[in-house]
Design goal:
Mean pLDDT: 84
Shape: globular
Order of helices and strands: HEEHEHEHEHHH
Radius of gyration: 36 Å
Strand content: 5-15%
Largest sheet: 5 strands, mixed
Number of helices: 7
Structural class: alpha/beta
Length: 226
């Protein structure tokens, strides 16, 4: 005859039987959680890698990122302040000479252009007081350039000085039509009264030298009210 088991033993056996699927479920849930965590890590890495690649693509230097960059004539370019990468790209475009219209310490640009093998020339133009002598100095250097072999970049900080100087050189020295040169000038900025007076002085000087009657086909920009 089979001996009856104690009630406590029966409860223990039932509890043990119930706990087995609980342990299996816990392991399965842990595996799922680990898988989700690994998947999230991989997705985050892929996203970070893509963002890094996109950033590299966006920061690749091009001449379109050069402030107010223009090609004014087959051998003449103008722009705002270029960095070393822009100057390197301009050299690839055939630029051989750089005219810098910014006053002050220009040691950094002198070093950069020297390392690139570019001919550097500085005409320090005071923004508040440009002079006829500034332009004549600029024109003398420009006329020393072989226009069939060389290309020149004229630059300042925003190409406001540069746009005015290239406009003046084109109409007074190269003999281009004033309306054509004005199109490039106005695409950059509309000269204020100080610069308009300076530009008129330059034109008057060359009219006397060349026996012409050139004139600007626009008036000075109206100063903003204070």
């Amino acid at each position: 005859m089979k001996k009856p088991q104690p009630a406590e033993h029966k409860r223990t056996k039932k509890l043990s039987t119930f706990q087995k699927p609980t342990f299996s479920f816990t392991v399965t849930a842990a595996c799922i959680s680990l898988g989700l965590a690994l998947s999230a890590t991989v997705n985050a890495y892929d996203t970070a890698s893509k963002m890094s690649t996109d950033t590299q693509i966006e920061t690749t230097p091009t001449l379109t990122s050069l402030t107010n960059y223009q090609k004014n004539a087959p051998f003449m370019y103008s722009s705002g302040l270029p960095d070393a990468s822009h100057l390197s790209l301009l050299k690839e475009e055939g630029v051989t000479h750089v005219i810098d219209l910014i006053p002050g310490n220009r040691a950094s640009e002198i070093l950069t252009t020297s390392e690139l093998g570019l001919d550097y020339f500085n005409v320090p133009v005071d923004w508040e007081a440009p002079t006829l002598a500034n332009f004549l100095n600029y024109a003398a250097f420009m006329q020393s350039v072989d226009v069939n072999e060389d290309k020149v970049l004229t630059h300042c900080k925003l190409n406001w000085r540069g746009a005015a100087f290239t406009y003046l050189y084109r109409i007074n020295v190269l003999g281009e039509s004033e309306p054509t040169a004005k199109t490039d000038l106005m695409a950059i900025w509309h000269p204020n009264p100080t610069w308009y007076a300076f530009m008129n002085e330059v034109i008057t000087h060359y009219n006397g030298v060349n026996g012409k009657q050139l004139a600007m086909s626009f008036e000075a920009a109206v100063p903003e009210s204070q």
